[in-house]
Amino acid sequence: MPPTPMMQQYHEAKQAAGDALLLFRMGDFYELFHEDAKTAARVLGLSLTSRDKGENPIPMAGFPYHQLDGYLAKIIAAGFRGAVCEQVEDPRQAKGLVKRDITRIVSRGTVTDDALLDPQTSNFLLAVAPGEPCGLAWIDISTGRFEATVVPSEKLGDELARISPVEILLGESADSLPAEWTEGRMISRRPAWAFGREAAVAALMKHFGTQSLEGFGFSQDDEGPALQAAGAVLDYLVETQKTSLAHIDRLLPYGVGTRLEIDEATRRSLEISQTMRDGRREGSLLGVIDRTVTSMGARLLGDWLANPLTDVQAIDARLDAVAELHAETSLTADLRQSLRQIYDVQRLLARVTTGRATPRDLSFVARTLACIPKLKAKLAGRKSARLSQLEGRIDLCGDVRSKLDAALEDECPLASRDGGFIRAGYHAELDEQRELMRGGKQWMAEYQAEAVERTGIANIKVGFNKVFGYYLEVTHAHRDKIPEDFIRKQTLKNAERYITPELKEHEEKVLAAEERCQDLEYELFVELRGLVAVAARRLQATAEALAEIDVLASLAELARARSYVRPRVVAESVLEIEGGRHPVLDITGTEGTFVPNDTSCEARLASRGDAAVQSAILLITGPNMAGKSTYIRQVALISLLGQIGSFVPAARATLGVVDRIFARVGASDDLARGRSTFMVEMTETARILNTATERSLVILDEIGRGTSTYDGLSLAWAVVEHLHDHVGCRTLFATHYHELTDLEDSLDGVGNLNVAVKEWQGEVVFLHQIVPGAADKSYGIHVAQLAGVPREVNERAMEILAQLEAQHEQGGTEEVRRQKSEDGERKLRVDTGEPVGNGQHLQMTLFETVDHPLLEEIRKTDLNTKSPLEVQRLVEQWQQQLAGDAVSSRPR
Hints:
The structure is a single chain. Strands 13, 21, 22, 24, 25, 26, 27 and 28 form an eight-stranded mixed beta sheet that branches. Strands 3-4-2-1-5-6 form a six-stranded mixed beta sheet, sandwiched between helices. α13 crosses α14, α15 runs antiparallel to α19 and α17 (428-455) packs antiparallel against α18. The longest helix has 34 residues, at 501-534. The protein is α/β, with parallel strands linked by helices. It starts with a helix and ends with a helix. The protein is built from 28 helices and 30 strands. A hairpin with a 4-residue loop joins β7 (125-129) and β8.
């Protein structure tokens, strides 16, 4: 049986939708059919029914049209795309089947509706063009921000962590990205031609209306892969949005190397924008410092934290602005009060230019413009250059504001087709039609009174429904009083409904006026929307300025509330912090309980033979739970805050600009890829050693703990030497290997710090104070007690520890010494007092070997003077003695 015309229309739309779930508009519902219906029933919780119940029923599921946003959110969250197929023809004017077409395909990276977006977070769609280097381009279509760059393929994972896209476009034949890079992100495969260079450049120039892309800062030779990726993004948006993309008016080059670089592992370890435990914004650095009052400001602050500056002048420009706002308390308060009334203009403009704005969106633009003059006036005459520049970038857009204010009611509806949002007096014809509508209602009241008087039927009334229009209703008790010109249309249980020629004539006038009012209001709405779209570039620049003012004011408010100070940012590789505090724990912890600590770390030249050695390595020892990890993290976070232009949680700070921050903190594994915790640790450590520069900041926590004690100690020792001799960067190294503290005596760039601990009546008190010198204990058993390990286990551990320490002391201590071989290389030597020859290596063990009394006896025995039987008896005697000693020496 051939499909009906409507189902034929559906199949054509489904073919165009591809793998997206097709939401097919039918009257007041969106319907899904066939496999889409089964998927929707499972994913969206819809009831699965069927159409054409017969031999070949068609699975069907649907939901009311006004619930579209909610179901699109569920579709996207489940990892699907949704294709919205609308009625694109007015049913009143359609001849036969109403035309339908896909108006947009919605995926995670192409969302523009507020209901589907996090207002505080950018929503990036990213494309990867393969090659070496590879091309990257990313866009937030909800704001129009579009950027591209080229990066070495080995840095792709770090860039994905920095940008944090929600959807990634890859070529059909491109290799899949590692799972840890794409976790939680939607992957959309695109045809290879979408990444073609010539097609990409041509499409970009056509979209921007330019003869080349050099005006945006791109060279086809050097940034070809970046343009390929940008072209793939644009192609995808044209295919899915099916509307104007005029708000995407620039392609910005992202300069890799002009921002502080932070790799994926470091972002995770430092919890810059989300926590490690549950991936939430709350509890991260971004979550606790965000005092912005607009969505635009919140997104910009996240961008600043993801991309800290490395240019001292640019950093100081931001700090000057924050300092002025910090000093001008009333100014900051006034600015923040005005900003609270600002709407998300960036996302409003995206909906305006794509034709998806509502009357309420336009009213929000008008309200924002009404707040701007006062805010701009407050910024006039500011001392800091940045605030003055921002004031100059704010365009009052008076022409747009006056038009919107004159046209729109104070409260506007969402639906543009329902009318009721244009002010009286704005449009003459609309006022006339509205008066006709109001007059029609008055006429109806008068007509009803006249009918009562003419017929003598006191309870006659005039009603209206969509089927019959206006009618006169008379109860059966007065049936005999009905005049001849009353035409019966409907019989009810207790009454009859009638129409008259006069009533129908006026009905047509009223309904025509109502319809004309709706059409006029929609025409006026489209005109106003176009007015805003024409001014989009000016409004976008104003929105960007408002967002930055919000961030600067919020940083000033944070500094005032938390007693932050302005850091001195310099180009030299220094790090001086007095009374530094962890920016997250200082806020989330109990007020006044966080213990501040100092840090002094400077890359300096020291003479070592003919070579100049730059280094500044602080070794921090002390017990677990005492604050070593907190201390090294807070130094990294303070440096990061300083380089976004923020005041910092300290009493005083001098921060040398850092080009990269590396953090190897915490234990994690990657079992899916066959990598143990120790393998992950070594991989991340290798990356630090291979890519850190003398301007980097490295924080390391417990390197080498995932293997045997001496393997780990050897690796940690070698890592310190390499950082000292070959990198020369500022390094904070927290460790339990107390042997490393001897390096202070042999490496002039190494210093020891430890976390102070006080023992009192068998209890250990962690003072959380960083002091010079090395710790002599780790207090692991005390920490186990605090963690709730059973008392008998702790007591037994103390007994074993006492025995092991006694054995260690009796046997002496192996000495690990730094020595130079004849060729000048430093090597580790294990000194046991005995030579090791014939190429044999002594295997290090956890506890020192104590010479057994039998050894001396064996050494003195001259076997040449013994008979074979005597030798056999001596060996048996020695074996018995060793067996007895082994039993008696077991810990009890």
